[in-house]
Every structure is written in structure tokens, then in C-alpha cells.
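Hey, I was hoping to borrow your eyes for a little while. I'm sending you its amino acid sequence along with the C-alpha cells. Take your time with it, there's no hurry, and the full record follows here.
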Amino acid sequence: MDVKIKYSVVIFTIVIVAIAGYLIYSDVANSNTITIAGSTSVAPVAQALANAYMSNHPGVKISVSGGDSGVGINDVRSGQVDIGASSRNLTSSEAKGLSQYIIGQDAISIIVNEQNPVNGISLDQLNGIYNGTITNWDLVGGNNSPITPVTREAGSGTRADFEKFVMTNEPYGPKVQVATFNYGLLQTVAVTPGAIGYVAHDYLNNEVKLLTVDNITLTQQSVQNGNYPLTRNLLFLVKGTPTGNVKDFIDFAQSPEGQAIVNNIEYNLTANNTYNPSSGIGYSGG
């Protein structure tokens, strides 16, 4: 083959490979599909944001799934999803290589059976209940009946934050039960007369009773002004720096319009705000 022809073939091949690489990169950076997974304390907020964004961007498909905060952190780091969702702060090792975006604030709701006459609890009393030193409701202003404390499963971001706020590195007492997922804990408290537990606020319904904590009622104002003591950030996580539709979606989540959606989900729940199977979000993680 003529040297000039060989040279032309080589140049042509390099150009084709370069174009293909650019197209692949461009397709990834500007993919019309965004995948989100992780904490389902974040999931109702993420789904509402996704629905609003997709309505204004009909060419973009956003898929939201659950797991727990650990799943969100691990899946985004491994590249399995575009955005990880976490309801707890990351450790220094977990944070390496990840960009973090606060999309809202959530409060941990302390709940009891709706027939329980107790209306409020202190952080010290919660600590005593969960470390096993307070075992009867009459010790905290209730009836003479045993307390059944319920916690979340290991790996839950909500559990990690509850332990940070309440347990201060103390172990649980021997009577503490474990319920799986926000919904599992909610249902356990709803059907157990002496139970006490905690859920992400966006899962709260009228099947249980919400307690004040340290005489502070959980409201949008008490969360946003920092008075309610069990408040944490909701996070979107991205490996590296977001680009394309992923960046645009996160910008939307943090915009005034997006924040209005977050606040509506967090503070305007009704008894009808229950799991919708068509949404693709199950009650898991948190």
C-alpha cells in the first residue's frame, strides 16, 4: 500500500475514534436519563422534585429508588446511579470524591401510639428510654404501662442521626426492638400501645401521635430557625462534578421553586400522603 494511503488511513481512523469518544462523552454528560437512589427519607422529596422537573423537561426521565443512606453513598461512588441520596452527614472517607448538595432539611419525628396520653418528651428522657433505664410510661408522665422502644435497622441514616442526637454513643437497652424501614417502624408504633419510635417527618401520618421534644413542637418554623433539636440536612451526592441534566436538576432542586416543593412535602402532609406504588418508591432505607 502506498505510504500516503497508509498515512491517510491512520489519520482517518484517529479522527473516527476521537469523534466516537466525544459522542460517548457527550451522551453521558447530557444523558436524558437521571438515576437517583439512597435514603428514602429523601425519596419523597426527590420524587416530587423529579415529577416537577420532568413536567418542564419532557425529554428527561428521572428514576428514583430507595435503599438507605449507605446505598446512596455506595451506589453513586461506584457509578451505578447519577445521584445518591443521604439523610445523614458523610464521614470524611465517604466524602472523598463526592460533591454534596443540601436540598432541604428534615426533622426526625418522635412518635407514640395515638392512644398514649403523653404529649411531650425530653432528649434526656429519650436517652433513658432507649438505654434501658426508663422502662415505664409513668416515669415520664404517662400511664403505668411498659415502654416498648423501637429503632430502625442498621444502615439507616435516620437511625444514625437519632443515635447522634439522642444516644451519645451509648448502647441500646435490652428491650429495644428493631423495625425495618420508615414504614415498618411507623406501623409497629401504630399497632403497639406502649411503643415509642421515630421516623423521617415526611412519612408522618395520623395513625400515630407526634410528641414535642424538649417542649418544642415540630413545625416548619422550628426546624428552619434551628429550635427543633432533631433536625438534619437532606443531601444529593454526585461523583466528581455534575454536568448536563444532572447539574441542571440539582440547580432546580436548590432554586426557590424547588425549595417550595421540598417544603410542601416536608410540612404539608396529610393522612392521604401514603406510598403510591406507581411512583416506584418503596418504604425502605431512610
About this structure: The first helix runs from residue 3 to 29.
